[in-house]
Design brief:
This protein is mostly beta strands. It contains five helices and 43 strands. It starts with a helix and ends with a strand.
Length: about 725
């Protein structure tokens, strides 16, 4: 850590000439996230954060022309004089562009359930950027950020998990409109099913931030904000036909004065794929449906009320394709039906830059089916509530979480957990005596857990603005209680022939994160370029791992037992990313990461990819106004484990392999047509026969090349 100390010692040498700060909002006083702010005639520039706030340091004292710009709004230019060492505040309201014909698409949203702010620096991925990159679902959008991998590790569940900086997906908290989804299986409906056309933006937070979120946020958090209507009547829909399935989604909404509503439905299905023709399919074939609704009421300028809910239904099958009546007699077949519902509400009172809010969320999930030739049943219920107060430099709140879990494989009786959390966090704290512009972001949380006792989660971050770049350093802790550990299949040799058991005395996992980053933005009349460098180290204690205990003589399944490790595991690495936006309708993003996940004896943790390189290129061609999107990844190796029929585990290295995707699209009025090819090179892993008694992890694509066509309609 010597280089960190050298940077901190050298910072006072950079003189602070002054800065311009403020907030950019629309006509409804709603923040415009991602608005561009720059000094005319100078390379200095920045962008607003998710709350519309910006901070722009000037290269010298004097008078400047400050330009404010956001897509779909009239640009504003202010003349601002900054004395030496002065911080000038300028709040700006941008007005929509007046068009003779209503705009087909809008990037603005009425505020529904406000995303809870976190003191850790967040990365915002707007819908427009995701569409230009050719992404289809929420999960694919998340992978645009360096160090994030979307992995399907449960072959029977077909659940996507967001792995952040080498840590398992169970350490990444998924939030919908700022409300936590504590049940891991719930994320499948959001990550895999909701199309990018229905999403306003994604907010990615890296590092342990349990000081604000509570349980699960050890590696970070992913907040998904859905698109909300801004006109009296809006409707949009999208249909995608794939080589092995279909995706269909539709949304209708309205916003009239103080009342707004939105209703979205989505359907997805996949057909069975048997590449090696052994009678056992390599994927999970399913039918999945979800319905999400939201109602907003704004009786005045200071009150906001929101009600929302969702319902999901899914039937999934894996293994041998057989009639429903034969699942109970076949050890190589599983069938599970899942139904889930969610309800949430939020009420907020705002006075200036202060706000008092109350949120309540309820969710229930029930699964029935046949697993390991037995009738399977599980049920889960969650209650989450919090009250928070926000002031210009302080945020504080209290939250309550109750979880109930029942599972026929893992619990002899229902398991229950209650957690009361109290937290406080600073905002935009700075000291005038410090010679470099900065912002200090402290937070601390105290949890009183009914099962795991008292848990203290401190957090601290500091940002520096020395002029040449933005520097940020953060350290935080987080924890995860193992109520639903069976929903995450990380570190298990994948496949269909396994059974899982758990230690009845599992203890909570705790994590410590250290992060350091550097960001620089260049703005010219023809180019906006962003460059970011991140260094990270995560340390997890009481890590829960699965150990092979033998092979069941009846079902021939490998039996794995979940228990806490006595020694910690760590993940250390570096991320690099750059985004180049040319004014000629061309954008290019590059990303790469290198990491090492290991235990205390420096043994590599299995199923963690050690490096990766990727790109996204979007070009709007003058020929027929067609937009070309291409994306590619070079996937580095990982340690793979395979269970043999005699119970031994064979370890091997997965190969380095590339994946390239291509998409062409064109906007025709209110209709958008797209044609695409995933995995153009048809690179895939041909699985060994399951009749050999193997349980094999799929380290790469198993389907290979896939064609798809999408029709999107927006009114």
């Amino acid at each position: 850590m010597r280089w960190l100390a050298l940077i901190l010692i050298a910072l006072p040498a950079f003189a602070f000439h002054g800065a311009i700060a403020g907030r950019v909002v629309d006509e409804q006083d709603q923040p415009l996230a991602g608005a561009q702010v720059w000094l005319s005639g100078h390379p200095s520039g920045t962008a607003t954060d998710t709350t519309g706030n910006y901070f722009l340091e000037v290269p010298m004292h004097g008078e400047f022309q400050v330009v404010y710009q956001f897509m779909g709004f009239k640009s504003e230019t202010l003349r601002v004089f900054v004395a030496h060492g002065e911080r000038v505040r300028r709040d700006v309201m941008l007005h929509p562009v007046a068009l003779a014909v209503p705009m087909v698409e809008t990037k603005e949203r009425r505020q529904t359930i406000q995303a809870a702010e976190t003191p850790v620096p967040a990365v915002v991925i707007p819908q427009s950027v995701a569409e230009r990159a050719g992404k289809s679902t929420v999960g694919e959008v998340a992978t645009m950020e360096a160090g994030i991998q979307l992995q399907k590790r449960c072959s029977a569940c077909e659940v996507s998990e967001v792995s952040i900086q080498g840590l398992p997906g169970r350490f990444s908290l998924i939030l919908l409109e700022g409300m936590p989804l504590f049940a891991g299986l719930a994320s499948r409906y959001i990550l895999d099913l909701v199309p990018v056309e229905m999403v306003d933006r994604l907010e990615v937070v890296k590092g342990a931030s349990g000081a604000l979120w509570g349980s699960d946020a050890i590696a970070g958090a992913l907040n998904i904000l859905l698109l909300q209507p801004v006109r009296p009547l809006e409707a949009r829909g999208t249909y995608t036909r794939r080589s092995y399935g279909n995706d269909l989604a539709a949304q209708v909404g309205s916003a009239r004065r103080s009342l707004g509503f939105s209703l979205m439905g989505a359907h997805g299905d996949r057909q069975p794929v048997d590449q090696n023709l052994d009678g056992i399919v390599e994927n999970t074939f399913y039918q999945r449906n979800i319905l999400i609704g939201n109602l907003s009421f704004y009786p005045g300028l200071v009150w906001r009320f929101n009600l929302g809910g969702s319902f999901g239904d899914e039937i999934r099958r894996s293994g041998v394709v057989i009639p429903d009546t034969e699942y109970i007699n076949n050890p190589l077949a599983e069938k599970i039906r899942t139904r889930r519902w969610d309800f949430w509400q939020r009420a907020a009172y705002t006075a200036g830059r202060s706000e008092l809010s109350c949120r309540i969320a309820l969710s229930g999930q029930k699964e029935t089916g046949t697993v390991e030739m037995r009738d399977y049943f599980s049920q889960q219920f969650n209650l989450f509530a919090d009250v928070s107060a926000e002031f210009p430099h302080l945020r504080s709140g209290i939250s309550f979480l109750r979880q109930q879990v029942q599972d026929s494989r893992l619990f002899t009786q229902p398991s229950q957990e209650e957690d009361l959390g109290i937290w406080i966090a600073g905002r935009e704290i700075a000291f005038t005596v410090f010679p470099v512009a900065h912002e200090i972001l402290p937070a601390i949380r105290l949890d009183l857990n009914s099962v795991y006792g008292t848990i203290l989660s401190p957090y601290g971050a500091i940002k520096f603005f020395p002029g040449f770049a933005e520097l940020n350093f953060a350290a935080g802790t987080g924890f995860r209680t193992p109520m639903v550990i069976f929903e995450s299949m990380e570190n298990l040799p994948g496949g269909f022939q396994y059974a899982i058991r758990r230690d009845p005395d599992l203890s909570r996992e705790t994590g410590l994160s250290l992060l350091a980053g550097l960001a620089r933005r260049f703005i010219t009349p023809s180019l906006i370029a962003d460059f970011r460098l991140n260094l990270f180290r995560h340390l997890v204690r009481n890590f829960i791992a699965a150990e092979l205990t033998g092979v069941d003589t009846l079902s021939r399944r490998a039996v794995f037992y979940y228990s806490n490790r006595d020694e910690p595991i760590s993940s250390t690495g570096i991320e690099l990313s750059s985004i180049l936006n040319f004014h000629t309708h061309t954008s290019l993003s590059l990303k790469c990461f290198v990491l090492r996940a290991e235990d205390h004896q420096h043994r590599t943790i299995p199923f963690v990819r050690r490096w990766g390189v990727g790109y996204n290129l979007s070009v709007k061609t003058p020929v027929w106004k067609v937009e070309l999107n291409t994306a590619g990844e070079l996937n580095g190796p990982m340690l793979v484990q395979t269970v043999l029929s005699d119970g031994r585990i064979l370890e091997s290295e997965s190969p380095v392999y590339p994946v390239f995707d291509l998409r062409l699209s064109r906007q025709l009025g209110i209709v958008r047509l797209s044609l695409g090819v995933n995995n153009v090179g048809d690179y895939h892993q041909l699985p060994r026969s399951h009749h050999e008694g193997r349980t094999e992890y799929y380290w790469g694509p198993i389907i290979g090349r896939e064609l798809y066509a999408t029709v999107s309609l927006s009114i």
